[in-house]
Amino acid sequence: MNQTEQITRQTFDQVMAPNYAPAAMIPVRGEGSRVWDQEGKEYIDFAGGIAVNCLGHCHPALVNTLQQQASKLWHVSNVYTNEPALILAKQLIDATFAEKVFFANSGAEANEAALKLARRYANEHFGEHKDQIIACHHGFHGRTFFTVSVGGQAAYSDGFGPKPGAIEHIAYNDLAALEALISDRTCAVMIEPMQGEGGVIPATDEYLAGVRALCDKHNALLIFDEVQTGVGRTGALFAYMNSPVVPDILTSAKSLGGGFPVAAMLTSDSIAASLKVGTHGSTYGGNPMACAVASAVLAEVNTPEMMANVNAAEVQIRQRLADINDQYQVFAEVRGKGLLLGAVMNDKYQGKARDFLTAAVAEGLMMLVAGPNVLRFAPALNITESEVSEGMDALERAVAKVCQSSD
């Protein structure tokens, strides 16, 4: 393709594998919570790159950090360490329960590391028989074969041949189901403190406390997948901080890099000891570019002021959704916490979440769905009151149009 040839949405169909079906418009520039497409049309961004762009687009602190690191050191491999990786590790340890960190590039890779570590730890301390992993139906933990098998959504894991074994699934928020299944053969229980892809469903405190107790009883590790809920998304640095429990292993990605690929697995000294030299690795994990950016993200996000903005924006969005629903009666409930919220379609609009999404884009609002029945909100944590208002105005126009066409 020469430089003068026009790039359009049709170019995608010509050159890309067909596993995605992107929107007709192509974003070309972003600033804060605003995005512009090829035609110059402006959008308010409530999608955040699927809960990734926690500081919006092209945040000055991240741009400056990336430019500075780009002129110093890009990559050295894990034959060596590097200063940005060590600085970021110390930041994460100082801010959380963790004593040790492993870096990767994506949530799937962080979860892969967590699952391998749980199996390795159980093998070393209890024997080969302790290999069962328990996870939840409708969970999402990544797209590697191991993580997609643990994820509990057959649509994503079927059709690729034999799956990794010793993986069982139960209903989310159902403590009795876990109690019936867990045993001394269980090496780990992996859950999201709030299911994201599964429909923006928070775990109850009672459920989490019960899961923690059952894991302790059976010497199983509790793994929290905080890829979507972490780094300020729910109004705390990590969702576990607003719960009654502390996990044994926690995974983070998405917002951790604010748009630059980076992930981390956090755990204790005693559990991390099972990752002896050579047992696991990642070519780019701990890359100095990624770690420098993530350090800047944490410095910006982990402040009382940012968490206050997250909580204020949640209140504003919930109120506007209530106002819209009073007029149009489309939502059964609004679930979630902080700036990971889900508006659930009522009986009349079952299966039509994507209709509202499409209408919102036409009105200048980028949004997400979480399954066929939930509109998902995951805007930047630093979104302003006026930007929320502008985005909700667009959503109200979109809802009006969908309702009119349905009547």
Main sheet: strands, sense, barrel: 7 strands, mixed
Strand order of the largest sheet: 4-12-11-10-7-5-6
Number of helices: 14
Straight-line N-to-C gap = 47 Å
Q: Could you list the spans in which at least 5 consecutive residues all have pLDDT below 50?
A: none
Percent strand: 15-25%
Shape: globular
Count of distinct structural domains: 2
Q: Which structural class best describes the helix and strand composition? A: alpha/beta
- CATH superfamily name of the largest domain? Type I PLP-dependent aspartate aminotransferase-like (Major domain)
Nearest-angstrom radius of gyration?
Answer: 21 Å
CATH topology of the largest domain: Aspartate Aminotransferase, domain 2
CATH class descriptor name of the largest domain: Alpha Beta
The CATH architecture of the largest domain is 3-Layer(aba) Sandwich
Question: What is the typical, i.e. mean, pLDDT?
Answer: 96
Helix coverage percent: 25-40%
How many beta-strand runs? 17
List keywords for this structure.
407 residues, alpha/beta, Aspartate Aminotransferase, domain 1, Aspartate Aminotransferase, domain 2, 7-stranded mixed β-sheet, 4-stranded mixed β-sheet, 14 helices, 17 strands, 18% strand, globular
Write up what this structure looks like:
The protein has 2 domains: 9-58 and 304-406, Aspartate Aminotransferase, domain 1; 73-301, Type I PLP-dependent aspartate aminotransferase-like (Major domain) (Aspartate Aminotransferase, domain 2), CATH 3.40.640.10. The strands form 4 sheets. A 7-stranded mixed β-sheet has the order 4-12-11-10-7-5-6, with helices on both faces. A 4-stranded mixed β-sheet has the order 1-2-3-15. Strands 13-14-17-16 form a 4-stranded antiparallel β-sheet. The chain starts with 8 loop residues before the first helix and ends with a helix. Strand 16 (368-369) and strand 17 (374-377) form a beta hairpin. With 407 residues, it is α/β, with parallel strands linked by helices. The relative contact order is 0.16. The protein has helices at residues 9-15, 48-51, 60-70, 83-95, 107-126, 145-150, 154-157, 175-181, 205-217, 269-272, 288-301, 304-328, 353-362, 385-406; strands spanning 27-31, 34-37, 42-45, 100-104, 132-136, 167-170, 186-191, 194-195, 201-202, 221-225, 249-252, 263-267, 331-337, 340-345, 365-366, 368-369, 374-377. The longest helix has 25 residues, at 304-328. Helix 3 runs antiparallel to helix 11 (288-301), helix 12 runs parallel beside helix 14 and helix 13 (353-362) crosses helix 14 (385-406). The protein is built from 14 helices and 17 strands. It is globular, with a radius of gyration of 21 Å. The model has no long low-confidence stretch (mean pLDDT 96). Helices cover 39% and strands 18% of the residues.
